[in-house]
Amino acid sequence: MAIEIEMPKLTDTMEDGVLSAWLVDEGEKVSAGDVIAQVETDKATMDVEAFDDGVLLKKMIDEGESVPIGQLIAVLGDEGEDISDLVGGGDGADEEPSTDEAGADAAEDKAAVAKTTEQESSETAAAEPVGDGQVRDREPEPVPAGTDSEGRRIKASPLARRMAQDHGVDLASMDGSGPEGRIVRRDVEARIEEGEAAPAETKAAPTPQTSGEPAFEMPTSVLEEEGELYASENISQMRKTISRRLAQSKYTAPHFYLTVDIDMAKAMEARKQLNALTEKQDGPKISVNDFITKACALALREHPYVNASYLAEEGEIRKYNQVHVGVAVAIDEGLITPVIRNADRKGLGQISKETRELAGRARNRELQPEEFEGSTFTTSNLGMFGIEEFTAIINPPNAAILAIGEIRDVPVVEDGEVVPGKRMKVTLSCDHRVVDGAVGAQFLQDVQGYLEDPMNMLL
Question: Which family does it belong to (predicted)?
Answer without folding.
Answer: Belongs to the 2-oxoacid dehydrogenase family.
